[in-house]
Design brief:
two-stranded antiparallel ribbon, mainly alpha, three-stranded antiparallel beta sheet, 431 residues, branched-chain amino acid transmembrane transporter activity, 17 helices, 2 domains, 70% helix
């Protein structure tokens, strides 16, 4: 390029503002210090409350781990899975099987984490080419297939399950406290792992894939490898949570009704993520707190408990389209765990950054996904998922918002839940 051409090019772009792309550093230090203090307080928790309250906290930490893994899949990689209960169940059995051979369940948690991640590799090749609702349904079918295989193995209890050996000599209070510390460790590692993964180059890759997969591929991004990595990490996290669940329940039962392979686990992790704010690290934390409060207050109302959860999910998805924490972040610019890059304009206050390359997610798309998951338990929610899904897809194509995958997945789940409910009703009428 000649000197005159270079001068001419500089003059052509001289009117453009001097934009800068930066990443928050100060927030990371304060967030790390605050997180450390919270972990220290939570570590002391069993010393000040009874085993009953500690047991509730264990359940909350399990849901938090699962929600963080599901958020990594759906919120950052665009993989809406309805089959994460497969890895939860496998994790429980990978604690049970070593315990049957004399290995302590505490070391079994490490085995469960690694083994669940390893099992994700062959399962990934079965669903790698699927997208949107097809991926969601395929993962659900795979989870059901894994459960059916486990139920045929009589040496590990078959369809009835079996108690967990190796911990019968523990004092109940000590066992509850140890289980709590194990659950806390798993949850902290899960959240920390997701945070540092998203702060790395992989996080940028996932953001580009989520926003525009075709553009990411054309830029040389290894889309398949990035999604495989996220799928394995999410499976390992769910496997660790399943191992903690097996220790807490002192038994492993594979059945779908309250068992380790129940689709209700996926409903819980999706609910917590959507309520708190999908696509944010803080979202699953806030959503888990809301979910546990609702569960403790409404669990005595039987079926009404699920209906209220569905109504809350729909209301939040419509009126707080980015979830509770996402709405707070949007209005007050509060980021406890910043993972993205930000665009700064001249004269702009540095407390009000603009996220780079993150289009808003359509509210009806999130509502469709929430209704689709809850629709497996409440039929009206499945019908709403179909309606919201169709409306969201039209809006996404018209406005350019993100959320087409969420809308399609929710719509497909709504159709499947409706068909299954009709079959169940017909069966009950003919019984």
């Amino acid at each position: 390029m000649t000197e005159n051409a270079a001068t001419r090019n500089r003059s052509e772009y001289s009117d453009l503002p001097d934009l800068k792309v930066t990443r928050s550093r100060r927030n990371v230090a304060w967030s790390g210090l605050g997180a450390l203090l919270v972990v220290v307080v939570l570590y002391r928790f069993p010393y000040y409350v009874g085993p009953g309250t500690t047991g509730i906290m264990i359940q909350g930490l399990i849901v938090l781990t699962l929600a963080s893994m599901w958020n990594l899949l759906a919120g950052y990689a665009g993989l809406v899975s309805v089959g994460q209960q497969a890895f939860l169940g496998l994790g429980a059995y990978f604690v049970l099987i070593p315990a049957m051979h004399g290995i302590t369940p505490w070391f079994g948690l490490v085995i469960a984490t690694v083994a669940a991640g390893a099992c994700a590799l062959p399962l990934w090749w079965l669903v790698a080419r699927l997208r949107l609702g097809y991926f969601a349904i395929a993962t659900w079918v795979l989870a059901s297939a894994v459960m059916l295989v486990i139920e045929q193995i009589s040496s590990i209890g078959g369809g009835t399950g079996m108690p967990l050996p190796g911990i019968s000599g523990y004092d109940p209070a000590v066992l509850t406290a140890d289980t709590y510390w194990a659950a806390l460790t798993v949850a902290v590692l899960a959240i920390g792992g997701v945070y540092f993964l998203l702060r790395s180059r992989v996080g940028l890759v996932l953001t580009s894939i989520r926003d525009d997969e075709r553009a990411a591929k054309s830029s040389g991004v290894r889309v398949g490898f990035a999604r495989l990595l996220v799928f394995i990490v999410a499976a390992a996290g769910c496997g660790a949570a399943g191992g903690v669940l097996a220790i807490q329940q002192l038994q492993v039962v594979p059945g779908t009704a309250g068992g380790v392979f129940s689709v209700q686990w996926t409903a819980e992790m999706a609910f917590a993520t959507i309520i708190g704010g999908i696509g944010t690290i803080e979202g699953p934390i806030v959503g888990t707190i809301v979910y546990m409060v609702l569960q403790q207050e409404l669990q005595s109302y039987n079926a009404w408990y699920l209906i209220v959860l569905g109504v809350v999910a729909i209301a939040v998805a419509i009126f707080a389209r980015r979830g509770l924490w996402g709405t707070i972040d949007e209005k007050f610019n509060i980021r406890l765990f910043p993972v993205g890059y930000h665009l700064w304009e001249p004269g702009e206050r540095r407390s009000r950054p603009k996220p780079v390359g993150t289009p808003p997610t359509n509210g009806r798309a999130i509502a469709a996904l929430a209704c689709g998951v809850v629709g497996f338990f409440v039929l009206p929610s499945a019908i709403l998922a179909i309606v919201f899904g169709h409306l969201a897809r039209r809006e996404v194509r018209r406005t350019g918002e993100a959320g087409d995958g969420l809308a399609t997945a929710g719509m497909v789940l709504g159709y499947v839940a409706t068909v299954l409910t009709v079959f169940v009703i017909i069966y009950l009428l003919n019984a």
